[in-house]
Amino acid sequence: MSTFDTVLSMVRQGEKVELRTMPSTDAGVLSTLLMHPEVKPHILLRHGDSSPHTYLEKLVTRMLYAFDPCALHAGIYVRGRHELIGTASLQNWNRYENKAVLGYMLNPLWWGQGLATEAVGLLLDYAFQELGVMKIEGRCRGDNLRSERVMIKNGLTLERILPMPGSSGDVMKVFTLLHK
User: Tell me, what's the pLDDT at 56?
Assistant: First the structure.
């Protein structure tokens, strides 16, 4: 079985959540989550010349059907349930340098229960043990303390703070974790 086949059939279970490949029936839930007013400010959606709606459709398609060879997107589900509550992903995955950027989002109804922390831990373990990733970088806006805590609880450490382009004082915190 190739790495690509393994990725497509990914299922990882924790105590409270499981990560698994998202079915096409989750497209609406995924779109709603990406546009949620409490989630959207923390996600960098670069739509370029496309309309935001067209870009959102393309992004959802890439996430559901694994059309992006440099990314892996998994759905976060409460263990034993079928409702998509978030996503965890490896983005900008460089297989030659064995590094990737961590991404995750969770429906605000589920915040504060340790679910994102557990899901990210499952993804990190999968990335290091199954995919051979050696370095993970995570990023969050300076005021996103929830996301910062998720990364710190999973062993990532603050590497640098960068100014956000075009913002008035907003920063991006960059965290890293190396596989031992």
Answer: 74
Q: Cα–Cα distance between 85 and 110 in angstroms, integer? A: 7
State whether the Cα torsion 137-138-140-142 is positive or negative.
negative
Distance (Å, whole) CA 93 – CA 111: 27
The better pLDDT of the pair 67, 11 is held by 11
CA distance linking residue 69 with residue 114, whole number of Å:
30
Q: Which of 90, 118, 124 is nearest to 106 (CA)?
A: 118
- Percent of the chain beyond pLDDT 70? 86
60 torsion bin: left (phi>0), alpha (psi -120 to 50), beta (else): alpha
Q: What is the pLDDT of residue 65?
A: 82
Furthest-apart CA pair in the chain: how many Å?
Answer: 49
CA 65 to chain centroid, in Å, comes to 15
The region of weakest confidence among 2-16, 90-104, 152-166 is 2-16
Strands (E), the chain: 11-13, 17-20, 72-78, 84-94, 99-106, 135-141, 157-163, 171-178
C-alpha–C-alpha distance, residues 15 and 119, integer Å: 10
pTM: 0.88
